Amino acid sequence: MRAILALMLALIAGAWITYSSQKLPDTVPASAAATDFSADRAFVDIQRLAEAPHQVGTAANARVRDELLQRMAQMGLSPQVRPGIGARSLRQAPQLVASGYVENVVGVLPGRDRTAPALALMAHYDSVPASPGAADDIMGVATILETVRAIKAKGVPARDVVVLITDGEEAGLLGANHFFRRDPLARRLGLVINVEARGSSGRVQMFQTSPENGGLIELYQRTAVRPASSSLAVLVYENLPNDTDLTETLGVNIPGLNYAIIGSQFDYHSPTATPRNLDRGSLQDMGTQVLVAAAEAAFANRLPDKAPSVIYANLFGDIVLAYPIWFGWILIGAIVVLMAFAVRWARHDGAFPVTDILRGAGGLLFATLSTVAVLQFARRLTGAGFGYLEQRVLLAQEVRWEWAVALIVLGTVLLAVAAMNSSRRWLAVLPLLAGVGGSALGGFDIVGAVSGGLAALIGLISYSRPVSRKGAWAGALLVGLLLAVAVQAFAPGASFLLVWPLLVAAFAAAVTALGSRRSSLGLAILAGLAAVGLGWLGGFAHFIFVGMDMVAVFALPAMLLAILIWPVAQPEEGARLGLLPGAVLLISGLAVTLSVRSNDPWTPRYPDIAYVGYQMDQDTGRAWRFSPARDHGSWVQSVLGADGGTVARLDHWAWPQTMLAAPAPPVPEPPPLIALQRGPGEVLNLGAIAPSGARTLVLRIRSTVPGAIVAIGDVPVSIPLTPGKWSRVSWATAARPLDLTIKAAGSGRMEVRYAVTLPRWPAGVAPLPARPTDLMVWDNSDSTFLAGTRAFTW
């Protein structure tokens, strides 16, 4: 009973530590000292600038630009509009390029040394269609304005502080591309701090740095207030396809730090991203974090130098622990010494066979793989599809789903550890059923099936007879150690996540001789160290949860959880109630999962998406009302069937996916004007003018001879034209003409497909009915889309 009590106290204390670490700060009022960051002061700018959606190139975006110019002029920053064309190829597909005319807003707070490398504070002011962008990224804009105001109140900085508010980020980092590739001011910068958001609440994560970040992390370590950052976050983000404006900064080798809030992702790129729904605690957290780093850099005699990248992560409070990669091997050596001492001391109290160590290792692997299988089953059990739009039913009930995941992880791990005290081969059925069940719920799930099958096989071997607690925990620690060595060798930035909990567990093992000393003091030591480890680990688990919809990634937190709680979770041999805590938690987690599935979360605060459009093929004269095939609600059906046509699944080259569509009456709309002119030599000039009121223009180009698009306007690009293959240019500011310069290898023929977005429902067809309050527009919904083809020879 004392062990169960110690286990419960460890779990509760660990949960409390996790909760405390994620708690947002109180907002600082507008009456605070001028040198402080006040969320209340910054929020005034958010209310002014995030009144409505403001996509690049629109009148609404021009209004925000003008508001910024006025605001920055009042602050004495001498703002300028620095216009130009941004053109950026996708990393994964060089034949696709995003482009548009942008208007960056730049101001400068002069420093004492105007020749010193300047500090730039960067955010973007445009939003996606249909979203006012209060968090992404007007919060970033307001954070920078309030930060610069506070820096100015501290005195004259040592260097210039450049306020860089970019345009066209949402259309493909266009403003940052233009600034860092073509604006001469970019050459004056020595450090960039970028401010972003993915959602409308949550702690601030400093999630990306430039390479050779040793000096930057020293600055961060010295200044951060309740920091949340790690070399693992940097490592993961470097290997994701995601981009922010800092991507362009790093592309020209200017050092930088990237900050973002991550939480309440339902509001990400959503009409619900309003000032009212933005968490002011997150705004305060962002401002506090950015101000301390920016002020330190602004007033320093020199900016941080490049230095070898370090392993680092935050502990508790204001502590960031950082060390060179080689020191990670010292920590691993300390773990080896502690484990060797613990095993040797434990065997003095009674030897345990080597097979116990092997079975303990198997038990840890069983716990880890079983957690993956059960979580994969639970994810399928929710009924939500995979993808950002498909998972919104989970984002609308984010807290409930996170509770389900946490209970399932805890329950599965506790069952696996507790079952080591007796022969329980039947437990192998659990992951096997989960693996099979996941595939039965929505198509073959290879991750669930493989993890469930492997766990079942390992379970049959590991649970064939009782295993001593000392031997089992030694085996678990050995597996963790081997994995830590591998990660330290091949991905050192992630090694701390294994090494630090292992160091805590190895110390606990040495002090209590692998958990055999279970006096009140011994249990208190084990429970206390486990609570600290779990509380720290819980913060990373929460980051995994809010950052990605990939439950299999919880395998690593599950493994570390098992290692930390093992000595208090494995009961005495033959104890009957040992499985009860795990069983209760697992069943509770699955019950919460069922409640997630059965709950209808759609409300005016959390509305479902209803995307509809009118598509006109100007080659054939045919038109359709359409909606993505996942939209089957009654309102969408009423829209699709308003003209009496039969709704069916349909594909069209202008659509990114199969749509539900019904014939609609064609409406005369002027097509874009597209012309090809031959220049000197092998140069061709392709020009396109979208119809009045168009928002975006996309050209797909296919040539019969090799060539390349070498310029968009006056901006050099390199977009290959491969015979028989389509290359694509998206032009985000269709109110302006698009001019392409092409070099072709000889005479040939070119086919040009166009797709135009008009942000209005067409006149002459049945109008859209009023949307219910629990449905919202998304992106370019409710628009008219024109598509057609032109052909040219030369």
Describe the structure.
The chain contains 21 helices and 24 strands. By secondary structure, it is an alpha+beta fold. The strands form four sheets. It has a 15-stranded mixed β-sheet that branches. Strands 15-16-21-18-19 form a five-stranded antiparallel β-sheet, with no helix packed on it. The radius of gyration is 29 Å and the shape is globular. The model has no long low-confidence stretch (mean pLDDT 94).
The radius of gyration is 29 Å
Question: Count of helical segments?
Answer: 21
Provide the helix percentage.
40-55%
| Uncertain spans | none
Main sheet makeup? 15 strands, mixed
Shape: globular
Structural class by SSE content: alpha+beta
**Euclidean distance between termini CA atoms:** 88 Å
Hey, roughly how much beta strand do the residues contain?
A: 15-25%
The total count of strands amounts to 24
Arithmetic mean pLDDT: 94
Topology summary:
Elements: H1 2-22, H2 39-49, H3 59-74, E1 80-89, E2 96-109, E3 118-124, H4 134-154, E4 161-166, H5 174-182, E5 189-199, E6 204-209, H6 214-223, H7 231-238, H8 246-251, E7 256-263, H9 280-299, E8 311-314, E9 320-323, H10 325-348, H11 354-381, H12 392-395, H13 398-418, H14 429-442, H15 446-462, H16 469-490, H17 496-511, H18 520-547, H19 555-569, H20 580-598, E10 608-609, E11 613-617, E12 622-628, H21 634-640, E13 648-650, E14 659-664, E15 673-678, E16 683-689, E17 696-703, E18 707-712, E19 715-721, E20 727-731, E21 738-744, E22 749-758, E23 775-776, E24 783-793
Parallel strand pairs: 2-20, 3-4, 3-5, 5-7, 10-23, 11-24
Antiparallel strand pairs: 1-2, 2-4, 6-7, 8-9, 11-12, 12-14, 13-14, 15-16, 16-21, 17-20, 17-22, 18-19, 18-21, 22-24
Helix pairs in contact: 1-18, 2-4, 2-9, 4-9, 10-16, 10-17, 11-13, 11-14, 11-15, 11-16, 11-19, 13-19, 13-20, 14-15, 16-17, 16-19, 17-18, 17-19, 18-19
